[in-house]
Amino acid sequence: MKSIHDPRYIEFIEQLILERWKRKITQEQLSISLGRPQSYVAKVENLDRRVDVVETRDWLSALGVAPSEFMDRIPWWSSGSSPPQK
């Protein structure tokens, strides 16, 4: 299974989208804050592009979300669950 299709990664991206929606920030507004094109945000949210830890930190900063609070909202992270068996 490609890591971009890992259920945990999908849940992670869904939480990023939810954080953007809760703040009523458009993809365009977020992309401007990130200094990236709107297509970058769309590709991440559509699971066409993977984000790394540095990009995630920038994304959360642009949304005004504390990284620790964000990660606590992701069930598999806060529960410390093991990766799925291959």
UniProtKB/TrEMBL annotation:
It comes from the Bacteria. GO terms for molecular function: DNA binding. InterPro entries: Cro/C1-type_HTH, Lambda_DNA-bd_dom_sf. It comes from Massilia violaceinigra. This is Transcriptional regulator.
